[in-house]
Design a protein that fits this description.
This protein is an alpha+beta fold. The chain contains 18 helices and 14 strands. The chain has a four-stranded antiparallel beta sheet with strand order 1-2-3-4. Helix 4 packs across helix 5, helix 4 packs across helix 7 and helix 7 runs antiparallel to helix 12.
Length: about 475
C-alpha cells in the first residue's frame, strides 16, 4: 500500500506544480489586460473561460425550424431522464459493492483518475484532445439550439481550459431568460447537450460499421487471444495471438471450421497443430486434448447449464480462449453494425445500447488503443472505392477518429447526466422534482384532499437537489478513495 501511495503522491506533485505555474501565468495575463483583450476571465482560480461570438449566426440559422427542434428537445428529454436514473442507479450499486466487496486490485494512480488527454495514460493526447474539443462543441451547440428554439438568447460560446487542455465548453445564455423560462422548456435545454452527445456517439458507431465493411483479411485462419494456463495448449507451447493454420493436416477455416474439426476428437486424444506465431515464424506442436466438461465444471458451471450449452463428458478441449476470426479487432468496435454481426434487426437493436456501454472499457483494457496491434496488423483493405482511395492508413485513421469521438461523446453524455449540480443531470433532477410536486399539487386541488403552497414546492425541490448532490458526491468520493485503504 505504501508503494501505491508513493506513486500517487509523486503524480500529484507534478500535477500541482503545473497547475500552480498556470495560475501564476493567468494572474500575469489578468493584470496586464491580456484576458480582457481575449474576452476571457479566470474562474475557480485556475480555469480560463474564453468567450467568443463565433458560431452564433450559424446557430440562429440552424435553429429556425423551431418546431422541429422542440420535438427533438422532447425526445432528448425522455432519453436523458431515463439515462439519468440509470446513471444514478449504477453509482448506488458501485457504492454498495465497494462496501460489501472492497476492491483488492492495485488502486489507480492520480493520472488515471482524471479524464484529461495526455495526463490519463489511457486517453492519448492527440486523439483525445481532438475528440474532446469536437464533443464539447457538439454538447454546447445542442444546448444552444434548444435555447434558441424556445426564444432564449445566447450571449456567447466558449471553452474552459486548464493550460492547453480543454476542460469543457459552454453556451452562455441570458440567465434571466433561462430562469424565467417555463420548466419544460428549461428541461429540454438542459437535456439537449448530453442527448446530442449520445446521438453523436450512435452516429459514430454506425460509421464504424460502414468502415468495418471495407476491411478484410488475407487469411481465413482463426487466431487465439489467450492460452489457459496448464491446459493442453499451454503445455504444448502455444502462445497468445498464435494463428491456427492446420490440425492434423486439415486446413482450419474460421472459428466454425475449428469447431467442426474438433468434433472428430475426444478428450485425451493427441493432435498436431500447425501455428504461426506473432513474430511470423511457423511451428508444428503436439497437443494433448483435455476434457471440456471437466474444465467448465471446475469453473463452477452446473451440469444443467452445460447440458443447455451442449457440452458433454469427453468433449475435446484445446485450452485456448477467445478464438476469433482475423477481422475480430474491427468487428469488436463496430459491434452490431459490423457486416459480419450474426443476428437480426431485433437482436441488433437490443445489443446496441449494451455495446455502446461496453465500448467504454476498451481503452482501459487495451492500454489506450482502440484495437490490439496484432489484430490491426491482420487487416487489409477490401476491394472497393473507399479501400482503394484511402488505403490501410487512411481507413485506420478514420477508425481511430470515430472510435475516440464516440468514446468521448459517451463519456461526456453520461457524466453530464449524473443527478448532481452543476451537471446537466442535477438541473434536470431539480426541475423533475418540481414538476412531480406540481402534479401532486394539481391532484390534491382537484380532489380537494390537500393544497400545497407553491413556495413549499420550490423549497423542497431546491433542498432535494442539494441533498442528492451531496449524497452522490460522497458516494463517488468513497468509491474513488476506498481502493487506497
Amino acid at each position: 500500500m505504501d508503494g501505491a501511495w508513493g506513486s500517487v503522491e509523486a503524480d500529484w506533485k507534478v500535477v500541482l506544480i503545473l497547475i500552480f505555474a498556470w495560475y501564476l501565468m493567468l494572474r500575469v495575463w489578468e493584470r496586464n489586460g491580456t484576458l480582457d483583450r481575449w474576452n476571457a476571465t479566470r474562474v475557480f482560480g485556475v480555469v480560463l473561460m474564453v468567450r467568443s461570438n463565433w458560431g452564433l449566426k450559424t446557430l440562429d440559422r440552424i435553429a429556425r425550424p423551431r418546431r422541429f427542434w422542440r420535438i427533438y428537445g422532447e425526445i432528448a428529454l425522455w432519453v436523458c431522464l431515463f439515462s439519468m436514473f440509470i446513471v444514478a442507479l449504477m453509482m448506488i450499486l458501485a457504492f454498495v459493492t465497494s462496501i460489501l466487496y472492497p476492491p483488492t486490485a492495485s488502486p489507480p494512480t492520480a493520472s488515471e483518475l482524471v479524464a484529461i488527454p495526455g495526463i490519463n495514460p489511457m486517453i492519448p493526447l492527440g486523439w483525445g484532445a481532438m475528440a474532446f474539443v469536437i464533443a464539447l462543441v457538439i454538447h454546447e451547440f445542442g444546448h444552444g439550439l434548444l435555447a434558441r428554439a424556445h426564444g432564449m438568447r445566447i450571449r456567447s460560446f466558449g471553452l474552459l481550459q486548464l493550460g492547453p487542455l480543454p476542460l469543457g465548453a459552454f453556451a452562455e445564455p441570458q440567465y434571466q431568460e433561462l430562469h424565467k423560462a417555463p420548466r419544460k422548456e428549461r428541461m429540454r435545454m438542459f437535456a439537449a447537450g448530453p442527448a446530442t452527445n449520445l446521438f453523436a456517439a450512435f452516429i459514430c458507431l454506425m460509421l464504424l460499421g460502414g468502415l468495418a465493411a471495407n476491411f478484410t483479411s488475407s487469411s481465413d485462419n482463426p487466431h487465439v487471444r489467450g492460452v489457459i494456463k496448464d491446459a493442453g495448449a499451454d503445455d504444448a507451447g502455444m502462445q497468445p495471438w498464435d494463428t491456427i493454420l492446420q490440425i492434423d493436416g486439415k486446413e482450419v477455416e474460421g472459428v466454425e471450421g475449428f469447431q467442426t474439426i474438433l468434433q472428430d476428437y475426444q478428450a485425451n486424444d493427441t493432435i498436431i497443430v500447425d501455428v504461426r506465431h506473432e513474430n511470423g515464424s511457423l511451428e508444428s506442436i503436439e497437443l494433448l486434448l483435455s476434457d471440456k466438461y471437466d474444465y467448465y465444471t471446475e469453473l463452477g458451471w452446473s451440469a444443467s447449464n452445460l447440458e443447455t450449452l451442449g457440452v458433454e463428458q469427453g468433449d475435446a478441449f484445446v485450452g485456448v480462449e477467445g478464438i476469433v476470426e482475423a477481422t475480430a479487432g474491427i468487428d469488436r468496435l463496430a459491434g452490431p453494425f459490423s457486416p459480419r454481426f450474426e443476428g437480426g434487426i431485433l437482436i441488433q437493436a437490443a445489443y446496441t445500447p449494451i455495446h455502446i456501454v461496453n465500448m467504454m472499457i476498451i481503452p482501459f483494457e487495451l492500454q489506450g488503443v482502440s484495437m490490439y496491434p496484432v489484430e490491426e496488423a491482420m487487416l487489409t483493405p477490401a476491394d472497393g472505392i473507399l479501400g482503394d482511395t484511402l488505403g490501410m492508413n487512411g481507413l485506420l485513421f478514420f477508425v481511430n477518429f470515430f472510435f475516440w469521438l464516440m468514446w468521448v461523446n459517451i463519456l461526456l453524455g453520461f457524466t453530464n447526466l449524473i443527478p448532481m449540480v452543476p451537471f446537466d443531470g442535477g438541473h434536470l433532477f431539480k426541475d423533475w422534482i418540481k414538476g412531480t410536486l406540481n402534479r401532486v399539487k394539481r391532484i390534491g386541488k382537484k380532489t380537494k384532499l390537500w393544497n400545497i403552497n407553491p413556495m413549499w414546492i420550490d423549497h423542497i425541490s431546491n433542498k432535494a437537489s442539494s441533498l442528492s448532490s451531496i449524497v452522490l458526491l460522497m458516494m463517488l468520493l468513497f468509491v474513488l478513495v476506498i481502493p487506497y485503504f
